[in-house]
Write a structure and sequence with these properties.
This protein has 236 residues and is an alpha/beta fold. Helices cover 35% and strands 25% of the residues. It has helices at residues 45-56, 81-92, 96-112, 127-138, 179-189, 217-235, and strands at 2-12, 16-24, 31-37, 60-64, 116-125, 144-147, 166-171, 195-200. α3 (96-112) crosses α4 (127-138).
């Protein structure tokens, strides 16, 4: 596994014009591409493990540091109150428009990577779930998966841009996405044949984060199996 630098379209006054991306290669050295989008904790061990796991499934995985404009190299956990406080600070300070721009740059760089054989998709968790949805609507991603994306009820106006397959995993008891927001999301996307939504009864936010407070082995296994099948069908 390695890292590589990507040139941002819009520079940061403090940190310049390049950001770092964690890169995981499949055992065969080549395969479809996958942009993995972090939670609010940075490109930490959880995200690197996910990248390595998707790589073992045959994908060339790039997980960019989307907090680089605030502080490059963030790697915190969900284990302490201080880390949660810092994570929410980063979330509140995050510029979504520039974040999508950086993800589009990652997508373009991955398409040009010599290990990538063709299509390139995206998958994201929490904050990354929001951004995976936006990638489906705003970029050339060939397929996207959103795990318990936050704030999606405020982004239904861009749903018309979703022309390629999007798979969404929603936690029924998500503390960050209340029932009224979930109902709005489902209603707003009901007419889009490119979108598939699965709701996980009784599950809370981040049910697929192994070792997390709300991790549920059965729900995570089901969601991950659906994701694997989705990417196999749409990125091969």
């Amino acid at each position: 596994m390695s890292e590589f630098k990507i040139a941002a379209k819009t520079a940061s006054p403090q940190f310049g014009k390049e950001f770092t991306t964690y890169l995981a290669l499949p055992p065969g050295g080549k395969g479809p591409g996958l942009v993995l989008i972090q939670e609010i904790f940075g490109v930490n061990q959880v995200m690197r493990d996910l990248a390595d796991g998707y790589a073992r499934q045959g994908y060339v995985v790039a997980c960019p540091d989307i907090f680089w404009r605030q502080q490059p190299g963030i790697q915190i956990t969900d284990k302490t109150d201080a880390e949660w406080a810092r994570a929410f600070e980063l979330f509140k300070g995050f510029d979504f428009a520039l974040g999508v721009e950086d993800l589009a740059a990652t997508l373009d760089a991955l398409r040009k990577h010599p290990a990538v054989t063709g299509k390139v998709g995206a998958v994201g968790y929490c904050l990354g779930g929001n951004l995976a949805y936006q990638m489906a609507a705003r970029t050339s991603a060939d397929a996207a998966v959103s795990y318990y994306g936050v704030g999606l009820d405020g982004l239904l106006d861009i749903a018309g841009g979703i022309k390629k397959p999007l798979l969404m995993h929603i936690a029924e008891k998500d503390g960050f996405v209340p029932p009224e927001a979930q109902a709005k999301i489902k209603a707003g996307l009901a007419g889009n044949s490119s979108v598939t939504i699965h709701v996980y009864p009784g599950q809370d936010h981040a049910f697929a984060r192994e070792g997390g407070k709300h991790w549920n082995a059965d729900a995570a296994k089901l969601a991950n199996a659906r994701t694997a099948e989705f990417f196999k069908a749409n990125l091969a």
